Amino acid sequence: MREEKHIIGYGESGNSKEVFYSINPSGKENSAVYFHQATAEEVNQAVQQASSSFALYRKIPAARKAAFLNAIAAELENCGDALITTCMQETALPRARLEGERARTTGQLRMFATLVAEGSWVDARIETALPDRKPLPKPDMRYMNIPLGPVAVFGASNFPLAFSVAGGDTASALAAGCTVVVKAHPAHPATSALAGKAIQRAAQSTGMPDGVFSLLFDSGTQTGAQLVTHPLIKAVAFTGSYRGGKALYDMAVRRPEPIPVFAEMGSTNPVFVLPEAAQQKGATIAEAYSASVAMGVGQFCTSPGMLFYPQQAADFNGQLSNVFSNITGGVMLAAYMYHAYQAGVEERLALPAVATLASGKAPDTTDTHVVTPVLMTTHSDELITQPLLREEIFGPASIAVPVTTREAMLALAHSLPGQLTATVHGTAEELPAWQELLDILEQKAGRVVINGFPTGVEPVSAMVHGGPFPATTNSSSTSVGTAAIYRFVRPVCYQNMPDALLPAELQESNPMGIYRMVNGGRAFTQL
Amino acid sequence: MREEKHIIGYGESGNSKEVFYSINPSGKENSAVYFHQATAEEVNQAVQQASSSFALYRKIPAARKAAFLNAIAAELENCGDALITTCMQETALPRARLEGERARTTGQLRMFATLVAEGSWVDARIETALPDRKPLPKPDMRYMNIPLGPVAVFGASNFPLAFSVAGGDTASALAAGCTVVVKAHPAHPATSALAGKAIQRAAQSTGMPDGVFSLLFDSGTQTGAQLVTHPLIKAVAFTGSYRGGKALYDMAVRRPEPIPVFAEMGSTNPVFVLPEAAQQKGATIAEAYSASVAMGVGQFCTSPGMLFYPQQAADFNGQLSNVFSNITGGVMLAAYMYHAYQAGVEERLALPAVATLASGKAPDTTDTHVVTPVLMTTHSDELITQPLLREEIFGPASIAVPVTTREAMLALAHSLPGQLTATVHGTAEELPAWQELLDILEQKAGRVVINGFPTGVEPVSAMVHGGPFPATTNSSSTSVGTAAIYRFVRPVCYQNMPDALLPAELQESNPMGIYRMVNGGRAFTQL
């Protein structure tokens, strides 16, 4: 049995005698590592170092921050197969998925490195002085985004690499110039330790200040609560359940000094099938929908959990039922998720108006915590009146709802809470007539998908992985894509600041060669 | 005695028998108008109309929204002298100030009209499809900002035109595509009614939907609370006291669906004088500081309330005391502000370590609610240990603190809560040696002013009128300048949306000719 300690800046710590273990949810061999619960002193030490190093880190030139991010990516690659096999043992996710996820994680880090090194993201705005303006001279004003301070990041269970220790939240916070304290997700602590050490090595090799990054372990909620309520923490990033995210939000807004919480809390990601589409390509949609539900044992934030289709499309129901019966379940990421899935399905099926339309296959395995995909069905009125049916079940469960009229389809859309995504399948001919549906959905969701499926979130500049509450606690943000950096900054205006004392981004000679808005003109020009 | 009613969309209402009156704080003749307290039904009706008209208003082309904003500006000018004289009676502010403020208000409206008509503000981002990408095709993704929904705006007392009914919050919310319900400030209801009718006429003449704007009166807090907790209100904008803003914030974050509150709650706007500056231009700084404190009877959010200067600059103290003794007070905006000012000064002067350094002159008048400027002084240690001394007094009161060492100056800066502004006076030679002070202050304030004074907030693209809590409840925003529009929007991503169904801003042909980010490149290009 091997011990792993908290990473606090360049050091490590493991003072508590209370420990917990890395567990393989499939019941097979695990990675045989134990972890100390973080003590209050350790949490405080990590935050204090994050705060003192912030004063240094924020002033480090953009090119060096970019080198740090690139070094993290390289160190994750240097972890070699150990990172993949450790993660497979802790999550029961397959090798190909995790290799792909590592590539995505390093890709994200390098994307933010490029963004930061280039520099235009700071949204520099310059108003030049008019010393002769009457009645009063106009001063020189220069605006740009600066980092908020130390950020608490919560590792997510379902992307043990891409949304965890070295994932998008950490990458975008470090890119913004914030220091980071990560609370590791207890479902993959050994993976977290490897990623954390990769970041620690990258910080040291690129000369970042001691404390720019720390990683704390805790199988409970104490460390998270202490981080969110610590006066020196200035923002929180979280991906996970509604319950978890909302609890952190409630703590943060009740602080003497409230701070922003960017909690991405998942959603049911409704899919609407329009009449002609159901008729012309019902079989294809049914197949792709079922595959999307089954993907990764349904453990994605964007996994589709609701399907609305025209009752008139008589075949569609049968097609869907057929193909869904052939999809296969798998091992959930953790025991508690397995139990939550089973309970969530049972609770819904206990409602009089809910029935099973199809069940997928149990995989042929002796593994533990294996779930079977479930496709439920109900009446559209029931979905509107029964809030439980609009809540997410984390895992490969979904509900298919036949809809009789256009008005009922629109009413269903209206009834939805905020979503990460909303999807419409329609032919080119019928879509324009459903503009009203699209209008409703763009007000409900962060991303509107046409003739596709919500799983597969591209980490690009145009991505929105966010949406109205309860999908997130801050609808003006995204946690994927380059715009994720804006969660961790605020604008500052320098008035009549001597040129030499301005940040490089705002100096008259524009030494970084970035795009800047000058005198309110529409052009972003390089002066 | 004339009656004024609530404006609800194109209609009016005044159902309550409970009324209140327009009051002249100077005790002179008032405008002899009474107002109904809004009933719960009236508030709900205004919000319902704001919500139903939002579905229409948000889809109106940008050029027509711009026409609406320009029409509001024209209608405010059409109000002629009646708007100015009414406002003078309600606020005791002088004619020149209010004429200037109207020009600023119409200027802001036209600035947002220009911004919206041009269109690049939506931050359009396009990632074009790669249908042949392996293992999976890359979809077409298009990102832009869309409006949040109906916004509740609270008129501010201290800018009865520029931060009130037709002020920057309303202008930026309407520009963003949101509908607006304004709660009028009870200290200038007749002015509010005139501005509200100007907006109503502009809405009708430019064909905006009935309900795009409503205006409610209430001398208490009930209407505000109902607005902030109404499920159909999606954001709140407020300028005023910490107590008022924090109360609205607390209500909004405790809603079943929390919403953002952009409360600008003022600050003490510290001014630091460095040794050489004190020596070389102490008299000039003392004079300008005193004038800045006296301006508008100290009733600005950016009025300087704290002055830190080197104790060694022996003359400075005397110079300051002399010039401050010659500045004149005036009538406060409302009786309750007069009493709060007197109580605030008394409470501080009752502290053993606080003394009066100078008192300004009482104006030669029989007016009521007249205050006299007060300059207090204390030890720098006292300012750090006594939180009361770091709180704002609304009005022409200020505290001057002699500081013995550089370390004490930095410690004072460190001790400050979040500020709208922080100002440093230093010679070109000494400023570089005080980089550490500037670094602290940019983390404390939304705007850092060098060798100037914080009063005078330019409504331009590079302005930040915001700052860390408790200056605001959302440090990533500004309530002045073009960036104020971003408070009321969120991004949405359209994936594989047919071109004809996309908003104009994202269509392939770029019909609005706006700047767009394409495929993550650094350039904002017109495709």
Automatic annotation (TrEMBL), chains A, B:
<protein>
    <submittedName>
        <fullName>Alpha-ketoglutaric semialdehyde dehydrogenase/NADP-dependent aldehyde dehydrogenase</fullName>
    </submittedName>
</protein>
<dbReference type="InterPro" id="IPR016163">
    <property type="entry name" value="Ald_DH_C"/>
</dbReference>
<feature type="domain" description="Aldehyde dehydrogenase">
    <location>
        <begin position="15"/>
        <end position="466"/>
    </location>
</feature>
<keyword id="KW-0560">Oxidoreductase</keyword>
<dbReference type="InterPro" id="IPR050740">
    <property type="entry name" value="Aldehyde_DH_Superfamily"/>
</dbReference>
<dbReference type="InterPro" id="IPR016161">
    <property type="entry name" value="Ald_DH/histidinol_DH"/>
</dbReference>
<dbReference type="GO" id="GO:0016620">
    <property type="term" value="F:oxidoreductase activity, acting on the aldehyde or oxo group of donors, NAD or NADP as acceptor"/>
</dbReference>
<dbReference type="InterPro" id="IPR044151">
    <property type="entry name" value="ALDH_KGSADH"/>
</dbReference>
<dbReference type="InterPro" id="IPR016162">
    <property type="entry name" value="Ald_DH_N"/>
</dbReference>
<dbReference type="InterPro" id="IPR015590">
    <property type="entry name" value="Aldehyde_DH_dom"/>
</dbReference>
<dbReference type="Pfam" id="PF00171">
    <property type="entry name" value="Aldedh"/>
</dbReference>
